[in-house]
Amino acid sequence: MPVTPDLSVDLAPGHKRGLLLRNPVMPASGTFSWGFEFEHHFGPEGIRRLGAVVSKGVTMEPRAGNRQPRVAETPAGMLNSIGLQNVGIEACVRDLAPQWARWETPVIVNVAGDTIDEFGEMARMLDGVPGVAALELNISCPNVDTGGMEIGQSVEASARATSAAVRNTDLPVIVKLTPNVTDPVALARACEAEGAAAICAINTVLGMAIDVDRRRPVLPRARGGLSGPAIKPIALRIVYDVAGAVRIPVIGCGGIATSRDALEFLMAGASAVQVGTATFANPRALLDVVEGLEAWCAAEGVARIADIIGCARPAPVA
Amino acid sequence: MQIEDAVILETRPAWEGAYITWFHAPSLSRGVEPGQFVMVHCSRERTDPMFARAFSYYRAEGERFALCYAVVGRGTRWLSEQPPGTPVRAYGPLGRGFRLPAAPSNLLLIGGGVGIAPLVETAWQAVAAGHHVVAMMGARSAAHLLPASEWPREVEYVVVTEDGSAGPRGFVTAHLGSYQAWANRIYACGPNAMFQSLADTLRGNGRRQSPEILMEENMPCGWGMCYGCAIFTRHGVRLCCKDGPRFNLFDVF
After folding, report:
1. First vs last Cα of chain A: how many Å apart?
2. Where are the membrane-spanning stretches (chain B) (predicted)?
């Protein structure tokens, strides 16, 4: 008799609160707004199908974001320079969290500090707030003048940001890494050492496009963050490297559009995946990935999806 | 939001460089407000280009809808070249459309270039609701005008061309004449330069009531997820796809 595959994963097994997901599929920060548009179009049952919800990046103060143009379509991908448009942490706690508390699906709040201290302060403000299940530290946004990737490109600053957050909250702290460094493994190890519950890899890859007719960069800040299928091999390689170097769970992110993409990341060692840009091209992308994983497990006779995590990695040396 | 493979029924020229394409797609054709839009994938594999393109509804009736679009890039060129029977992935209807008054009123519709497209569905719904409609179209030349036969016959259609090859010469906003005083409500869609000129003209004439306008911005997603289509208004930043595409002219220009 066929059994329903168990898709659940624990993203914070060593943490006192834990972070148990019914399946390993969640949106990437900044591609899901605050979750309410998805609920509007796909209903509460749509939210219930997801392993977790990840919010857009929240900053200490509200931000209007960058001027136009903010996006440029590129082959198999897009460049974005949104600039962390958001309502600010106070409105997040006051207006958004009570709505998230209605959902069974855990909500991970992506926090983007300008400074190390802001990561600690925002972690403190979100601690114990009903509706918030975990934090994801955004030390990897390429589209702001301060904080973001500036912190995430330094091993020392990444460690300090992690430590500041972990010391100020009982919530599991996930750290989202930038790929725009020589050695992402060193960043991951430093964040693990400071108490990160999990690592998310990767944020967008720094890129650029030029409008030949105008003889100017397409984006006003010239550089933007490249996402979409174009970056999947880069993301997969980094996940593979990081998962081999840390004991905490890794969340794979970068170019995942289908359940087979998701399986690649799980087999590389990711415990969960984030679907981002694919949602823009296919509003059902997240749901398609969940359903595809269920179907694949059933067809392959995989009873627990956790059993395939890291299965493509070389066997450990005894 | 409905997602459906809309099937192309017919594509015919609207004017030089622009086309009208009819689709069979029941779920995308029902309950459409004038000014709402639909996201249409303009590649077979949906990988290059990856994102759907946003088109305002030109018509929606029964189980069919139509788009009127200028060929401006790869996506619109591909769409214009597909034969009848081609399925095209699309999702919609999306966004907030025009609000028509409850009581029969005098409505002035002003379109610049391909911005005329959503005003045609607006006119059909307005006429059906008993409104009096004047539709003004500004275009480069006589070769770039929507044919008069596309409008309900109750509509008074006024054309203005930049080269004077049809109607008065110049920009449509310079030829509002007595229509602006006649109109209880004004609705407009066109390029930002037209909106700015319209705002300046109406303010100069002392009009307090803001026209409703439909704006355009790059929309990768179309449903409020990506924040790519920000519009900066007097009341703060808004998303064209989710908070619009209907805005008050005087809030933006």
Report:
1. 37
2. none
Q: CB-CB: which of A67, A85, A228 is closest to B227?
A: A85
Of residues A83, A67, A161, A74, the one with CA closest to residue A122: A161
CB B41 within 8 A of CB B89: yes
| B146 contact partners, CB below 8 Å, separation of at least 6 | B14, B15, B68, B116, B120, B137
Distance to chain B for A160, nearest Cα, Å: 30
Angstrom distance (rounded) from CA A149 to CA B179: 55
Q: Does B148 touch chain A (CB under 8 A)?
A: no
Domains of chain A: 9-65+84-207+227-307 (3.20.20.70)
- Whose tokens are 């720094």? That residue is A206
ipTM of the complex: 0.94
Mean pLDDT confidence for B86-99: 98
Q: Locate the chain A residue with the closest alpha carbon to B39.
A: A281
Please give the CATH topology (third level) of the domain spanning B2-94: Elongation Factor Tu (Ef-tu); domain 3 (2.40.30)
Q: For chain B, say whether A85 makes contact (Cβ under 8 Å).
A: yes
Interface contacts A/B by beta carbons within 8 Å: 81
Nearest CA in chain A to B94: A41
Q: How far apart are CA B214 and CA B107, in angstroms?
A: 15
Domains of chain B, residue spans: 2-94, 106-214
Residue type, A197: A
Provide the annotated active-site residues of A.
141
pLDDT averaged over 10-residue windows placed end to end, chain A, 318 residues? 84 93 98 98 98 98 96 95 97 98 98 95 98 96 78 94 97 97 97 98 97 96 97 98 97 98 98 98 98 97 96 82
Chain A: closest CA distance from residue B115 (Å): 20
- Whole-angstrom distance, CA of residue A30 vs CA of residue A33: 6
- Taking the C-alpha atoms of residue A276 and residue B75, their distance in angstroms, rounded to an integer, is 22
Residues 6+ apart with CB under 8 A from B73: none
- Determine contact: A255 vs chain B, CB below 8 A: no
**pLDDT for the residue A141:** 81
A70 in contact with chain B, both atoms CB, cutoff 8 A:
yes
* Contacts with A78 from chain B: Cβ below 8 Å: 50-51, 220
Q: Strand A216-217 and strand A210-211: pairing? A: antiparallel
> Which residue in the block uniquely carries the two structure tokens 């029964």?
B62
Distance from CA of A283 to the nearest CA of B (A): 8
Is B220's CB within 8 Å of A78's CB? yes
CB contact under 8 A, B51 and A283: no
3-state class (DSSP) for residue A215: coil
Whether B226 and A228 lie within 8 Å, measured CB to CB: no
Three-state secondary structure call for residue A169: coil
